[in-house]
Amino acid sequence: MEKYYQKEFECASAEEMRAIQTERLVKQVKHVWDNVPHYRKKMEEKGVCPDDIKTLEDLSKLPFMTKADLRDCYPDGLLAVPKADCVRIHSTSGTTGKRVVAFYTQHDVDLWEDCCARALTAAGATNEDVCQVAYGYGLFTGGAGLHGGSHKIGSLTLPMSSGNTDRQLQFMTDLGSTVLCCTPSYAAYLAECINEKGIKDQIKLKAGIFGAEAWSESMRQSIQEDLGIKAYDIYGLTEISGPGVAFECCEQNGMHVNEDHFIPEIIDPETLEPLPLGTQGELVFTSITKEAFPLLRYRTRDICILNREKCSCGRTLVKMCKPMGRSDDMLIVKGVNVFPSQIETVLIEQGYQSNYQIIVDRKNNSDTLEVMVEMTQENFSDSLGKITEMEKSLVAALKAMLGIYAKVRLVAPKSIARSEGKAVRVIDKRKI
Ligand code: DLL
């Protein structure tokens, strides 16, 4: 099993990787030019045509794609194959009410599952393992991706989805799960419950594949100690397929990018110029094997560094560090994408003004979200004896918009500090 997923390009020489990337890139550019009018228009506007793309250096001639392109082409304007050839969609939230929808052919699903299988294999999983998939199933890619990867390597797969902690722990002990796949914050919560229930001696876990949100090295250490496992990071995004775009190996110091499927670049988010290896900037991906929803030079907004130092695991795939933040204002709270603009919309709809502050923190290894809202003189005069009720109604409206709980604190008019430059809307106290 290990051999199967390590063969081909995981350990390719630089020349082999260059050759396969070039061949696939050239083919992909032609595919989008022929089948996606939006791409053809963007390429024409930049004065590029498929014949201009002959080597990897030519990649920088291509226009960038952003979430705005995806929104403009919602729901299927970027589809590069007939809809009848697609077998699945997945989706993630965007900055407006419109979600991003990604389509997959069977071939796309297969390659994505291969990427997840590589991640599981790198964490030591084999067909002898019992793999508990506690990422959400459904539109979110986490559940389906790791589930498919687990099947590919022949592990016994427990399709738990997220939540229902008592049931998670029951199956974990009764079926002897050895690999846990979920967000790091949920892993930390499970660890806490295991300790509270005093059932650590019944847990057989040896590895965890945790991603979809930022987590620190100290969080890794505490999960590893609490669960007695090795905790591996996994990265991905719906637009580029889902989890498995990059994964950690036994070195646990950066994630190997599956660059035979996704060419990574680092760019300066201001000038948009490509930056050399080892430099911090925005991560950009070009998917070179996807059929249904290929994205060329997609700006992830994740701030990152790539490096190509030799890895003791033998893989030659370039490594990305843990994302260090985002170049846009999207926050990821408990694995959910939260935009300040969504919060602002709710506040304004509910009769407040846009003097507010979003405070994100991490307590007991779980993200917390608090919104401090300044009342107008009018709401202030109305508020006597009603503050709790007003806060509750805002909590409900925010939950409906964001899908997660945000604590609300109403404060007196003019009590939030004004700024002379850009307003400081977000205070992210999580030190990553
Ligand atoms: O979070 C896919 C995924 C599922 C990855 C399960 C890993 C495990 P989206 O919902 O589209 O997809 O969110 C993508 O999440 O641009 C990053 O900002 C963030 N992200 C994903 N993995 C990591 C990670 C899935 N390991 C966005 N560390 C990305 C930090 C991560 N941030």
Question: Which helices and strands, and how do they pair?
Answer:
Elements: H1 2-6, H2 14-35, H3 37-45, H4 67-72, E1 86-93, E2 99-105, H5 106-122, E3 130-133, H6 141-152, E4 156-159, H7 165-174, E5 179-182, H8 184-197, E6 207-211, H9 217-227, E7 230-237, E8 242-248, E9 255-257, E10 262-267, E11 281-287, E12 298-304, E13 306-307, E14 319-320, E15 331-333, E16 336-338, H10 340-349, E17 356-363, E18 366-374, H11 377-382, H12 387-402, E19 407-411, E20 426-428
Parallel strand pairs: 3-4, 3-5, 5-6, 6-7, 17-20, 18-19
Antiparallel strand pairs: 1-2, 7-8, 8-9, 9-14, 10-11, 11-12, 13-14, 15-16, 17-18
The structure holds 5'-O-[hydroxy(phenylacetyl)phosphoryl]adenosine.
5'-O-[hydroxy(phenylacetyl)phosphoryl]adenosine is lined by residues 92, 135, 141-142, 211-214, 233-238, 242-243, 300, 302, 322-323, 326, 332.
Outline the structure in words.
The protein has 432 residues and is of the alpha/beta class. It has helices at residues 2-6, 14-35, 37-45, 67-72, 106-122, 141-152, 165-174, 184-197, 217-227, 340-349, 377-382, 387-402; strands at 86-93, 99-105, 130-133, 156-159, 179-182, 207-211, 230-237, 242-248, 255-257, 262-267, 281-287, 298-304, 306-307, 319-320, 331-333, 336-338, 356-363, 366-374, 407-411, 426-428. It folds into 2 domains: 7-327, Rossmann fold, CATH 3.40.50.12780; 332-428, ANL, C-terminal domain (GMP Synthetase, Chain A, domain 3), CATH 3.30.300. The protein has a 9-stranded mixed sheet, sandwiched between helices. Strands 19-18-17-20 form a 4-stranded mixed sheet. The longest helix has 22 residues, at 14-35. It is globular. 43% of the residues are buried. Bound molecules: 5'-O-[hydroxy(phenylacetyl)phosphoryl]adenosine. 5'-O-[hydroxy(phenylacetyl)phosphoryl]adenosine binds next to helix 6, strand 7, strand 8 and strand 12. Residues 92, 135, 141-142, 211-214, 233-238, 242-243, 300, 302, 322-323, 326, 332 line the site of 5'-O-[hydroxy(phenylacetyl)phosphoryl]adenosine.
